[in-house]
Design goal:
The protein has one domain. Helix 1 runs antiparallel to helix 2, helix 3 packs across helix 10 and helix 6 packs antiparallel against helix 9. Helix content is 81%, strand content 0%. The longest helix has 31 residues. It is globular and about 45 Å long. The protein contains ten helices and no strands. The chain has 219 residues and is mainly α.
Length: 219
């Protein structure tokens, strides 16, 4: 296989990982408009899982590499690390986010949460778990691991962090989006340190579940 052909799968995977969510949601915005109907939220979940499946297919079938190449290993210590990181997010990082919003006078999370208030709790639970699995796989596992050899892992972390932060802009607005840089930087630094995707997934999913489903003032 030529060098160019060898890099095609990774190039395609990086486009999906970094730009997939934004590009995929554009047609839905045109289709549903400003509607926050249940069907729109279901469609968004289907898109996210399609992107997730596409990345796994690229890794396993096209690149022919193991899932450990994107940091995914099924270990109990990963779950423990993830739960510990979630505690840090809920009791330390989230208050810092709220403090930043208060001090800067930027809009808070109200408008974003308003989009979710009519959704059933069971669906919110699915959505927060999905966000942890899909976003961490795309932005932390795949993007960092594949960009790292090309531009250095610190540079890869910065690119991933920046893109992942800005993806939240359409839903949450500038205030929350800028504040998301704080937890994003923490979990990116953790991934660069441990290279443990499962821990990041657990931390993200648990934190979102606490903030959006069980303790909305933190979100």
């Amino acid at each position: 296989m030529s060098t160019a052909k060898r890099y095609w799968p990774t190039a395609f995977g990086l486009v999906i990982a970094l730009l997939g969510p934004v590009v995929a949601f554009v047609p839905m915005d045109k289709m549903f408009g400003d509607s926050q109907s249940f069907s729109k939220h279901v469609a968004e979940q289907l898109v996210l899982w399609t992107l997730f499946g596409s990345i796994l297919a690229i890794v396993l079938c096209w690149e022919k590499r193991p899932l450990s190449s994107i940091g995914l290993r099924l270990r109990w210590r990963s779950v423990v690390w993830g739960m510990g990181l979630a505690v840090v997010f809920v009791f330390l990082v989230s208050p810092i986010q709220l403090w930043i919003l208060t001090k800067t006078g930027l809009p808070g999370f109200e408008s974003g949460l308003a989009r979710l208030e009519n959704l059933p709790t069971w669906f919110l639970l699915i959505a927060t778990i999905s966000a942890g699995i899909v976003e961490e796989t795309l932005y932390r596992g795949y993007a960092i691991e594949r960009l790292g050899p090309l531009i250095g892992y610190l540079g890869a972390g910065l690119v991933s962090l920046t893109v992942h932060t800005l993806v939240h802009l359409p839903v949450w607005g500038w205030g929350p989006t800028l504040s998301f840089f704080v937890p994003g930087a923490v979990i990116t630094a953790f991934y660069l340190w441990r290279r443990d995707l499962l821990a990041c997934i657990v931390a993200h999913a648990v934190t979102d579940t606490v903030g959006v489903v069980f303790w909305r003032p933190l979100a």
